[in-house]
Amino acid sequence: MANNLSNNPQTVPVGGIIQLPDTPHLSGTAISNSNGTITLAANQQYYVDYRTNATSPSGIGVAAALYLDGTYIPMTNSLAEGGSLATLSGSAIISTTQSSRLTLRNPTGVTASYGSTAVNVIKLA
Prior knowledge:
Structural class: mainly beta
Order of helices and strands: EEEEEEEEEEEE
Strand content: over 45%
Number of domains: 1
Oligomer: single chain
CATH topology: Jelly Rolls
Number of helices: 0
Distance between the termini: 12 Å
Number of strands: 12
Radius of gyration: 14 Å
CATH architecture: Sandwich
Helix content: under 10%
CATH class: Mainly Beta
C-alpha cells in the first residue's frame, strides 16, 4: 500500500506530471514513489485512487487523469469548469505485466494549479 501526497500548490503545464514530493507512506516492496512517478512491480494488480484540488486561469476547465507508462488509463479523467477551486477524483484497477510507472497528469490544454493532492495505491491479492 502507498499513500503519496503533495500538500503544496504547484503549477503544472499541459500534459505535465502532478508532483508528489511529500514522503509517501509505503508498506511492502511492490510500490515506490519518486516525486510523482509511482513505480509498480510486474505481474501485479492494483487499486488506485486520487484526489486533487485544481484551478485554472480565465475560467478554462481543469482536469486530472492517471497514466500508466505514459498511456492514459481509460475512465480515470476527472473534469471540472475552471475559474474557481475544483476537487477532482478518479480510480481504477490496473494490472501490470512488467515494472510500470504510474503518474497523475494534467491532460487539459491549459496550465493549471494543483494542490492537496493524494494518490493511494493498494496492491490487491
